[in-house]
Amino acid sequence: MASVVKLSPETADDLDRLIASGSFPSREAAVAEGVRRLQEDDAWWRMVDVKVAQARADSAAGRVHSADEVRRELRSTGTAPR
Predict the structure, then answer these.
(1) How many CB atoms neighbour CB 2 within 10 A?
(2) CA 77, 78, 82: angle at the middle one, nearest 5?
(3) What is the pTM of this model?
(4) CA distances for 8 relative to 11, 30, 39, 40, angstroms
(5) Which range has the worst mean pLDDT, 8-17, 19-28, 68-77?
(6) Is there a contact between 64 and 58 (Cβ–Cβ < 8 Å)?
(7) Which residue ranges make up each domain of the chain?
């Protein structure tokens, strides 16, 4: 289904530059990629919201570890940052 979207002159120029640079073959392709990335970002933020809610629930239930405990665990598994 075709749709018409009104773009600001600046956005239209940005799309045209992306096409001229060879990054995308058409405005449609550039917009489709932009929508795909927005969907990906939205999914990521929904996952973050779930993780934050889980962390808050863990904290409220007393399921927490001190920073020293976390560092020791990371060092023991070899995953500690250098």
Answers:
(1) 4
(2) 140
(3) 0.68
(4) 5, 15, 22, 24
(5) 68-77
(6) yes
(7) 10-77
d(CA 44, CA 41): 5
Helices (H), 4-82: 9-20, 27-60, 67-77
Q: What's the confidence (pLDDT) of residue 37?
A: 98
Our CA angle for 58, 63, 64, nearest 5°, is 100
Contact 30, 38 (CB under 8 A): no
Read off the DSSP letter of residue 80. -
Q: Are 32 and 25 in contact (CB under 8 A)?
A: no
CA–centroid distance for 27 within its chain:
23
What CA–CA distance (Å, rounded) separates 78 from 48? 26
pLDDT > 70 fraction of the chain, expressed in percent and rounded: 99
Instruction: Report the C-alpha gap between 9 and 30 in whole angstroms.
Output: 16
